[in-house]
């Protein structure tokens, strides 16, 4: 008697066949008989217990992720899942083309396992947050690395590019405005720079996740990672994208701080806090460079009630190995440069 497993939701949408005895489950979480597995990908899922288990989790994750969505949101998620399925079958090969014969070796199977688990983790962000239903849209791309194609021993024959961000699932002005803002500003999510998105010799991952949802502000944390094939290490960046709800726009520095010379005041406080929190690890650039960083709302987090958190990225104020440090400046110390909108931004009312 053949083993039955859960397969990713996209298989159902791409025409996976259920046996007559299969149990009917929500769309996007179909079952199939492994005796009918015909492609190397399907055979890998059926033949390796760790992949079967991860695939089962993914099917459940997807079913949960589309629960309660509108028709539009569900269709968007299904489209993303189809794109992901095609990507998963390409990215773990040597030429970014799905296998039609043969089988995945251990390295390819390990790659598939990582991609299955990563997709499940991403789908967990499709949920209710702050009284609003968000869902995830994503883009995936696998390309042959032209610099590695002729090297049979290369670890980097295929480059992987992944991007995801949330949208609001509702038919109301807030959802329409926020979603329009996100689609227009999607490039702000990608912190890798203009050329990285087309670099066939690099792995690139950009994601945006909801951090805070207030009546006045929706804040996303954006994470970028890129690795040039053959480099000693990858690079990363963390930034914030603040949507100011009352005016349907990105948050401005002038919404938080005001007064003549507020930038220099913030710079002075930031330099003192850098020394206080990070001391001997610092390798500081000139003050103008630091000022551009600390006065940029994309570096500000409002998660801490005690103070403004400012995000620095790799190499900016310390060596690469030190990571991406932050500092926290007390709101009491910032009182003198407080803008009229600051309480609205911080507290939502």
Automatic annotation (TrEMBL):
Keywords: Signal. Residues 262-332 form the DUF3298 domain. The keyword Transport does not apply. This is DUF3298 domain-containing protein. Residues 34-120 form the Lysozyme inhibitor LprI-like N-terminal domain. Residues 1-29 form the signal peptide. InterPro entries: DUF3298 (IPR021729), LprI-like_N (IPR009739), Lysozyme_Inhibitor_LprI (IPR052755), PdaC/RsiV-like_sf (IPR037126). Pfam families: DUF3298, LprI. The keyword Transferase does not apply.
């Amino acid at each position: 008697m053949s083993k039955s497993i859960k397969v990713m939701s996209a298989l159902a949408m791409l025409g996976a066949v259920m046996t007559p005895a299969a149990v009917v489950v929500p769309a996007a979480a179909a079952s199939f008989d492994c005796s009918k597995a015909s492609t190397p990908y399907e055979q890998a899922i059926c033949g390796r217990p760790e992949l079967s288990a991860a695939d089962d989790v993914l099917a459940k994750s997807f079913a949960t992720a589309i629960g309660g969505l509108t028709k539009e949101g569900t269709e968007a998620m299904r489209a993303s899942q189809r794109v992901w399925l095609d990507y998963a079958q390409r990215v773990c090969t040597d030429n970014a083309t799905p296998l039609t014969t043969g089988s995945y070796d251990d390295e390819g199977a390990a790659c598939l396992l990582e991609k299955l688990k990563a997709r499940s983790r991403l789908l967990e962000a499709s949920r209710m947050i702050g009284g609003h239903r968000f869902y995830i849209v994503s883009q995936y791309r696998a390309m042959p690395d032209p610099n590695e194609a002729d090297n049979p021993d290369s670890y980097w024959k295929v480059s992987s590019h992944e991007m995801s961000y949330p949208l609001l699932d509702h038919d109301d002005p807030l959802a329409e405005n926020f979603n329009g803002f996100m689609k227009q500003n999607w490039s702000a999510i990608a912190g890798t720079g203009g050329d990285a998105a087309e670099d066939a010799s690099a792995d690139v991952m950009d994601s945006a996740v909801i951090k805070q949802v207030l009546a006045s502000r929706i804040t996303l944390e954006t994470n970028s990672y890129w690795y040039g094939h053959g480099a000693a290490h990858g690079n990363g960046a963390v930034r914030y994208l603040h949507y100011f709800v009352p005016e349907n726009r990105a948050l401005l520095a002038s919404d938080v701080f005001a007064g003549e010379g507020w930038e220099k005041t913030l710079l002075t406080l930031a330099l003192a806090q850098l020394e206080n929190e990070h001391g001997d690890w610092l390798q500081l650039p000139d003050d103008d460079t630091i000022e551009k960083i600390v006065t940029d709302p994309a570096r500000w987090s409002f998660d801490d009630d005690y103070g403004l958190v400012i995000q620095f990225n790799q190499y900016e104020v310390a060596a690469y190995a030190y990571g991406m440090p932050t500092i926290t400046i007390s709101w009491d110390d910032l009182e003198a440069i407080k803008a009229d909108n600051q309480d609205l931004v911080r507290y939502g009312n």
